[in-house]
Amino acid sequence: MTRCSSTAVTISVSGVGGRGMTDVCRMPAEFDAMEFVEYIKTPKVDKVTLHRPYTMPVEGTLCVTGHHLILSSRMDSEKRKDDEKEELWMLHIAVDSLEKKFVGPIGYLTLYCKNFLVIQLDIPNVEECLNVASSIEQLSSLGSLTMTYPFFYRSTFERMEDGWVAFQPESELTRLKSEDWRLSYVNKNYDISDTYPRAVVVPKTVDDDTLRAAAAFRSGGRFPILSYLHKGHGTAILRSSQPMTGANSKRCREDERLLNAALGVGRRGYVIDTRSNANATAAKSKGGGFEIESHYPQWRRVHKPLEKYTTLQDSLAKLIDACKDSSNTTKWLSRLSASGWLGHVKELLNVACLVAQCVDKDSYSILIHGSDGFDVTPQVTSLAQIILDPDCRTIRGLEALIEREWIQGGHPFASRCAHGVFYTGKAKHVGPVFLLFLDCVWQLHQQFSCSFEFNEDFLYMIFEHSYSSQFGTFLCNNESERERVKLSQNTTSLWTYMNRPAILQKYLNPLFKTNQGVIWPAVAPQSLCLWESTYLRWDIDPAPRSAVWGAVLDIMQEDKEARLKVNELRRELAELQKEAMQKGLIGE
After folding, report:
1. Predicted pLDDT at 574
2. What pLDDT shows up at residue 82?
3. Which partner from 229, 242, 310, 337 sits 20 to 30 angstroms from 264, CA to CA?
């Protein structure tokens, strides 16, 4: 029976060994085909054979629609059970690249997906194979955002809440319970910063005119704003972009006033610059720079360099290449090490732990920035909050964190997640920044498996949706762009789908026990693991892992039943003791 790990965004495969997503409203093939008929020369092909990892080949009819590639098996539907149905249901946009190969009259089409899945379709006619390939190539890279599937998708499930308004800045502010901070709408028209949200949290003593002046001094107008406030010490984690000090070491007194107001009277803080000292200094020649300590005497600057998205993309490509190469297992460990991916995980966790230590143990406020402030910066601010705040380790808390720090915070999802590691064209702005963050969350989950409400499938599901989805949550690069295309009106939020009891059950961690404390992970290389269920998801047999978790769930159920029985027996014993005392059979 299919093990459903998410919601049919990328690929739906039913049948033995299927690990796809099936719980979704599907439109008829004709609906899409009519909209995109010019791209579809061959809408249907019979006798196509599907090959996918750890399942038997399936022969069926392949249909090409405006947004999906669909294969239904030719098995008589009356002779099969629902859980034996063999099916492929894939969004075109989930395909990263494809390869065509021809042997005689047969065309072999290999699809490389953004979630690292590789499948092969054997098409019995060369011309039909070429037509299908051409359709996928064109429909996977539609020029207009509003022609993508989220703008056509119409859900039929009952909506418990609207995910587009579930995590608004106003509701998040109430969680702070502090009189020292306020919500500013200085950027309500996105004219201060087109990558910041319309509402930001800033010190209450700082007016909007000061914010405007500080924004003019920061790259992209991203002036310092609040990410997290420590409940015990009142210390803060702030985020921004680099200051535009330039070669002449310019200063901005409004920016200095803003940062000092965030500290409070008599307090000190650290500026953690995620660039090397050399790179930060070199940025001055291009108009950028860093905080000069003589202008910010209450702040001390520390450089903790983390790699940019381009380096991460190369590293992930090497990792996946090693995962897909089963011909040379003897060099697996050396290739894993050479990819450098776990090194990036280690360094990011190191910096996040440093931030958490400064805020929690040393009572220092922290300002984090690199160059632009929307890639590495949210990685650090988000991980530090997960370490510090138990609420961020819940399903709803993680959703709120992703909304606040990543989506509203202006991480360019449309650019960074436009392609995966299999893409062979030119992609200047692509990089797995968000995936690296999710990997680090998984590392924390592995070390503190009882402290997280969600399981690892929840993290994988979010990863898949960030690259291809029927929902609009991860579309566009910032809030300004989302409002321009009226995303909340024209698409469904992922959180609308997720935050329903029937769906949430799939992603609950059976080992979860609320832990109100700070979690301090081990970050030594030997403490870090490869996230197998993501990078090797389609390359290792899922049966052993499924069997282990099945056994765990059985044990948990038996334990629950045993505890209920114990409580019942205790009540019966108490009643018998009470009755015996009333009859004088036993003394008090």
Report:
1. 86
2. 47
3. 242
Residue 385, φ and ψ in degrees, nearest 5:
-70, -35
How do 236-239 and 225-229 pair as beta strands? antiparallel
Tens digit of each residue's pLDDT (9 = 90 or more) over 51-83? 998 888 999 999 999 999 999 886 654 444 444
Sequence length of the chain is 588
CA distance 44 to 536: 32
Q: 503-562: per-residue pLDDT in tens? A: 999 999 988 998 999 999 999 999 999 999 999 999 887 667 777 767 777 777 788 788
Give the whole-angstrom CA distance, residue 354 versus residue 381: 11
Residues 6+ apart with CB under 8 A from 65: 29, 30, 31, 32, 33, 36, 40, 43
pLDDT at 448: 96
Cα(536)–Cα(357) distance, rounded to whole angstroms? 33
204-226 pLDDT, tens digit each: 999 999 999 999 999 999 999 99
536: left (phi over 0), alpha (psi -120 to 50) or beta: alpha
Nearest CA among 95, 26, 29 for reference residue 62: 29
Looking at residue 425, its pLDDT comes to: 86
pLDDT digits (tens, 9 = 90+) for 222-254: 999 999 999 988 999 999 999 999 999 999 999
- Return the residue matching tokens 């329903």: 500
Query: Is the Cβ–Cβ distance between 365 and 400 less than 8 Å?
Result: no
d(CA 319, CA 338): 8
Distance CA 243, CA 457 (A): 39
Sign of torsion, CA 65 71 72 74? positive
Report CA-CA distances (Å) from 199 to 14, 178, 221: 44, 17, 14
- Cross-strand bridge partners of residue 269: 299, 365
**In this structure, what DSSP letter does residue 419 have?**
-
Q: Hey, what are 45's tokens?
A: 């092909």
Of the candidates 516, 350, 373, 345, which has an alpha carbon nearest to the alpha carbon of residue 437? Answer: 345
Encoding tokens for residue 431? 């990089």
Alpha-carbon span 307 to 284, nearest angstrom: 19
**Nearby residues of 80 by Cβ (< 8 Å), 6 or more positions away:** none
User: pLDDT for 355-400, tens place per residue?
Assistant: 999 999 999 999 999 999 999 999 999 999 999 999 999 999 999 9
What dihedral angle (degrees, nearest 10) is formed by the CA atoms of 429, 466, 94, 14? 160
**Residue in 14, 6, 5 with CA at minimum distance from that of residue 88:** 14
The amino acid at 11:
I
Q: Report whether 496 contacts 37 (CB < 8 A).
A: no
How far, in Å, CA of 358 to CA of 299, rounded?
13
Strands 269-273 and 200-203: unpaired
The reply to whether the predicted model has a pTM over 0.85 is: yes
Residue 444, both tokens? 């924390």
Quickly list H helices, 164-265: 169-174, 208-216, 253-263
